[in-house]
Input
Amino acid sequence: MKKRIILPILTLTMLLSSDVIIAQNYTKRYGIEALGGINEYGGDRGTRYFFASKPTYQGAGGAFGYYLTPSFDGVLSFDVGEIGHIDQSFEKEGFRASIWNVMPGVRYKLYNNKILSERSKFKPYLHVGWGLFNYVTNIRNSPTPERMVRSFSRFAVQWGVGGGVKYSITESFDVMAQVLYNYTYDDNLDGLPYDPWVHRRNKLMDAYITHRVGFAFNFGANDAAYKFGKDDDNVPKEVKTKLELFSKQIQFETASDKILPESFNALDSVAILLLAYPNVNALIEGHTDNVGDDEENLLLSQRRADAVLKYITDKKIDPSRLTATGFGETQPIATNKTPEGRALNRRCVVRPFIKK
Output
């Protein structure tokens, strides 16, 4: 009974604790996950999904994730463990198998600023993957008049679909829970392959569910993608004030990364200021309003930040002092419901810091 309520309690706790934090996002593109839990079989011998019987088969694995867009992450996952089922009969028929799989996949994130904020601590997602499955199985059947025991190993293809939730503990560390339904294109895992004289037509192949809990570590920030607050404490106040003022004067052509000529004086002033303070580095942030596709806005904001970086480096500023990052529409500073608010959100900000 205790095991049946672990996942619901964990999910409820995450919901009640939801707050705002940054996790794997544009400036932390990579994530590594470590997971462990229970495997549950479903096939010709019956199904034992969602703790229908005592879970005695475990598994573990991990994944490498890569941020693609505000809505999608690419994932390469692997998993190892055991699966099986023993009939509670006099003959104790059944099977037990060692399994592993490797599956590239994609996650659709519900924390994409359409349902939940990208900066939310509570981060649910949907997952789909397709890849290679292997099993080494031991079968024990009891046809009359004698028992039959056999073992074999096979490779197959499988797909997995399901979902999960992450909860941010720190900027780089998440705890997580995930459930996947895995369908194998093989009907020999449990030792009862498809038989047209026994099974109905279009009989499903063998399948299994994995319940996993674990943690994720997010990393890969750009050199200048620091948490501002401590790193900019030593920046002279006049530098902060002037860069904030100059940033407000940076403008682009509509839906373009072409800098408008009226911005050149402000950008020249940014370059002169950075030349005067050679120990000051800068993060160039690109931002947009929410008009149009969010993925396109993200790409546009990156191109605009890159354009500002190129302009400044052309003025003899060392490129190693600068990093350009596009945030798309994910960090508005005003409402997007009015033209005035959208104009404020379409911005490029030069943020100074002193790298330790």
